[in-house]
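Complex 278.
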Amino acid sequence: MPLYQNLEALHRERKKYLGNQCGLVPTMGALHQGHFALIEQAQVENESVWVTIFVNPTQFNNTSDLHAYPVCLKKDVEAIHKINPAINIFAPSVQDMYPKHVHATSYAFNGLDTVMEGADRPDHFNGVITIVSKLFEAVHPHSAYFGEKDFQQLSIIKNWVKTANIPITIVPCPIVREANGLAMSSRNELLTKTTRAEAGFIYKTLEHCASNYMKKAAIYAHIANVFAQHPTFTLHYALCVDETSLQEVTEVNPQENQRLFVATSVEGVRLIDNIALK
Ligand code: PAF
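Predicted structure with pantoate bound:
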């Protein structure tokens, strides 16, 4: 089983793949169909696939969220093994990734972090880029796979790679959904069965707005109205933004690349989702 739990073991193994086209799938574990889709795509496009499993402390805004995050390495390793026993897994310790201080580096994100998750979760994206940078340095992939559920994260990673001239192709992968439409997330595991079933309304609401070509004010009014019917769900934001700048648009225009984003919390679990307004 190619499982490496420290940098030394990873480096030793990675050397054997020199000249290979390597694809990286960075994860925080508690793997689900969304991750498996990233792995499948990485398998199609690369000679070797490297999955990292690391719950990164510097991207959490509070310790209760960090401690609640589901951890199940054995199950994750078995699931990857079922897809393909040749997939390499890197699951380091915090000490390995942060040998001196458990601390995020500060980056400039050209305003991409001033809205939505960046506005609600100070330093979150500094933590994400800090760890992605360390994982890129450790694995040296040619390409890396990220899901569009975390669209703002994906935009920030693409922007950082471009600005810092990092020769790694960032591959966006479509959102994978549960049967009721809820975007797949490791955090869904933390919901009660009833709430998880109810949470299907989030995507249905986004779909309704996108498929009816609604105006911005009508979208916001509709979302506020629907959330009022689901009082256990706190709506943090609903925002129509330009896909490149991530800034709010003045008006929805299906000819342009725009997207509708929502963030909500229920039972102490933060859920995010988005849809293209085309
Ligand atoms: O999307 C995630 O799971 C995490 O933010 C990532 C990219 C693995 C960094 O910890």
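Residues 26-28, 56, 59, 128, 131-132, 150, 153 surround pantoate (CB under 6 Å).
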